[in-house]
Specification:
Elements (H helix, E strand, L loop, with lengths): L3 E2 L10 H7 L1 H4 L10 H21 L6 E4 L2 H16 L10 E5 L4 H12 L4 E5 L9 H7 L4 E5 L13 H15 L4 E5 L11 H4 L3 E5 L10 E5 L14 H4 L7 H39 L3 E3 L10 E6 L4 H10 L2 E2 L15 H5 L4 H4 L2 E5 L6 H20 L5
Parallel strand pairs: 1-11, 3-4, 3-5, 5-6, 6-7
Antiparallel strand pairs: 2-8, 7-8, 9-10, 10-12
Helix pairs in contact: 1-10, 3-10, 4-5, 10-14, 11-14
Amino acid sequence: MKKIYLDYAATTPVRPEVVRTMEPYWSEKFGNPSEPHGWGQQARIAIEESRNKIADFLGAKTQEIIFTSCATESINLAHKGLIEAIGNQSSAAGKPHVITSEIEHKAVLETCHHLEKLGMAEVTYLPVDKYGLIELRDLEKAIKSNTVLVSVIYVNNEVGTIEPIAEIGQMIKVKSQKSGRKIYFHTDATQGIQYLDCNVDKLGVDLLSFTGHKFYAPKGIGSLYVRSGVPLARQQDGGGQERNLRSGTENTPYIVGLGRAVELIGGEGRSRAIELTRLRNKLIKEVLKRIPDSILTGSLDQRAPHIASFCFKGAEGEAILLRLDAEGIAASSGSACTSGSLRPSHVLLAMGIPPEVAHGSIRFSLGRKTTEEEIDYVLKVLPGVIDDIRKMAPKF
């Protein structure tokens, strides 16, 4: 039986080149990077080389890169750290105000809920249109005298819609200049970093988070870009590593792996995006053609190269996934972080998709090893799977 992995948005295999780069730092160059002796300085040099690679990729300064364990930690540090650092500075206008969208990753939404629950911030959750896009005018209207942070995801992890981050960044810059009050801008670039332009100045962001395991680095390593001058209170106390913002002995092998993975995507991301877009478009076109009552979710034009997402009326997503798995095809019902929930996707509901339709959601996400033959196999198998499941649903 064929084995076809189409869940690259959930996680990716570590590339052999990344593994080879990491290997010496397990047992040969194993020193603690905080120590001044030769072993420690070997590790320190490797960490700073990786920091330089990531800074170059983002168009940032080396000291603006903080290593974390994942994008979720980076997001928590960015949001909680900023609100805590600002404290009561905006007390005359009310507690700090945060603006985000209804379709953010749970890492952003739950962090915002936490800040609300503790009374540390008030939060506005922007609606989106049927494609998952926020309206710039809605964001502009939501900005108040006490707004301190706007956080909008770069690429939605469930439907692949690309948000207008550069346009948002420019609008926030103008608003800040006119008011004389700095509004900070964060984006979760986890699904965008591999294929889209993530130059922080072009995007106009002050904070940018991502994780390594979405682009062939190991799980357990991520990063946060923090523009110089952004106030941030550490959320993890200890020995003062990472500019005193993220204490704990640095994970040298994983940091080295992250730097190598970023280096690799910097050299091939654009060409790979072109090929994946072609395969993705073929998958979308043929699914909509071959399967009646199938719905493409997200924007067709403003979509990341690697994500094709659908709803199939009259078929449960979990049943579809199990049948596909039996045929050797790995896909997802949405975000890997929420796939264990029986509730319909908050992203699809925010886009106006009825709950009974949202329950039939499937996300295919392509990667480096995806071939046209694999797409053809999915197109051969999927119509029969959907048809069989619908036959067991009398109401359809």
